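# nightly structure sweep
# worker-07 picked up a monomer target from the shared queue
# config: single-sequence mode, recycle default, output format = structure tokens
# input follows
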Amino acid sequence: MKTLLRTLLYLALIVWLGAEIFFPVVAAITFGTLQGATHTAGTIVGELLRILHGMGIVSGLVLLALLALAPAWHIYKPRTVLAPMVLVVVMLACTAYSQYGIIPAMERDRMAAGGAIDTSDTTNSLTVHFNKLHNRSERIEGVTLLLGIATVVLVAWAESAREKA
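# output follows
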């Protein structure tokens, strides 16, 4: 059972971080392939981002549950799972903010600008706000990735602490 729990924990981390790492590559290829069709590329990338966030939320909840169960099943010491759990909660908060705060606001700006933000004037207040939100979204994804890497390090440390006991 301990092996199963650790395997599921690692799998949840792999799925979330793998998607976070792969997403910018997919976005770059999409925009590169669909040059001249920025609106279409943005629509595709937006849908992929929603999928990424769904995967992140499910993976994060699985991680929290498994990290909470780990001390009870004598897999990790209680104090070694606290920091990873805090990081996962922050990652979930970032993901939820992006999914339910930033993306809907970007969508409102896009619709108010006539449906295609790339055809509106770059000095238009809607376009400026959309671009500000887009930059914030990129930073949030970057923070989520860095926190995920830190979580991997802390889980590895918990594993080391377990082996020493």
